[in-house]
Design brief:
This protein is α+β, with helices and mostly antiparallel strands. The protein contains 5 helices and 15 strands. Helix content is 27%, strand content 22%. The structure holds 2-amino-4-trifluoromethylsulfanyl-butyric acid and cobalt (II) ion (CO) (2 copies).
């Protein structure tokens, strides 16, 4: 019989969680719903798997490098999709987005106020001053590599250029916070610390993710500080860091009721994103989707 007066604990949510944690530990139950140190589902990759992740990551990076010169004024996002799909196939891999939960294309192309999951279309022609995130995920020998960049079309307003370069910096700040023994929330903390000074907002309803045989594995990686990510990092974990940064003050987003995929900022402000797949190593993080 455990009897505790919870009124003191209830003053702060943190205490409520700590209290519940202690009680549940005592009665030997799991506490999955509290997300406290819940890493049972996070797969640790062995050497053979890591090698495959390196190959998949490298190919995803190659697709982005390959497509870069085609991302220009006047081209349709569907053209970019076709080229990426063809390149991926030629390299013996498949495009993970195609048919993923019914997604209709091989890459995601997210233009201007589209936050993520934009569907390539023939009618979507890139124009001078636009920004477009191209998100590539390949499956090679059973393993996923996931990476994206935001490209600028022609002459982009300086304010927009700043948004794009800061979104990229934010991703690298997050990656730099990765170290075995540290908590995963250091990633979001570093991103939030950096981004907060610009008056931008960090999207909360989409995050990074564990990755491997599965496209989206545990853990869910938050790009802002939250104790929900109080998960101890370990060598051999692989996950993505992919902050979506809105130029406006609101992180609120909306999903298109028409196609069920396209996510836009609720306030119509622009959004930029960069993504890498990383491996937790003894020293910190190895970026798998970067060609050295
Ligand atoms: N590549 C995206 C990510 O970074 C996921 C796209 S899922 C899709 O997680 F179905 F929209 F393709
Ligand atoms: Co991803
Ligand atoms: Co992606």
């Amino acid at each position: 019989m455990i009897e505790v007066d919870i009124s003191e604990f209830a003053k702060k949510r943190w205490w409520v969680d700590q209290f519940a944690f202690v009680v549940l530990e005592k009665i030997g139950q799991k506490h999955r719903h509290l997300n406290l140190q819940d890493k049972e589902m996070i797969s640790i990759k062995n050497q053979a798997e890591i090698e495959k992740m390196r190959k998949a990551g490298k190919l995803a990076a190659q697709v982005l490098n390959y497509i870069e010169p085609f991302v220009k004024e006047g081209v349709s996002t569907l053209y970019l999709d076709n080229l990426c799909a063809e390149f991926t196939q030629k390299h013996g891999a498949t495009s993970a987005p195609l048919n993923y939960h019914g997604f209709p294309k091989s890459i995601c192309t997210s233009v201007n106020d589209v936050v993520c999951h934009g569907i390539p279309a023939e009618k979507d022609i890139l124009k001078n001053g636009d920004i477009v995130n191209v998100d590539v995920t390949v499956i090679l020998d059973g393993y996923h590599g996931d990476t994206s960049r935001t490209f600028m079309i022609g002459d982009v307003d300086e304010k927009i250029e700043n948004l794009v370069s800061r979104a990229e910096n934010a991703m690298y700040r997050g990656i730099a916070a990765v170290k075995p023994g540290k908590y995963l929330y250091e990633v979001g903390k570093a991103i939030e610390k950096y981004i907060s000074k610009f008056g931008y907002s960090i999207v909360r309803s989409y995050g990074g993710h564990g990755i491997g045989r599965g496209f989206h594995e545990d853990p869910h990686v938050l790009h802002y500080y939250s104790r929900e990510n109080k998960i101890r990092l370990e060598e051999g974990m692989t996950f993505t860091v992919e902050p979506m940064i809105n130029m406006g003050q609101s992180y609120a987003v909306e999903t298109s009721p028409v196609d069920g995929w396209t996510v836009t900022t609720a306030d119509g402000s622009l959004s930029a994103q960069f993504e890498h797949t990383i491996l937790v190593t003894a020293e910190g993080a190895e970026i798998l989707t970067q060609i050295k």
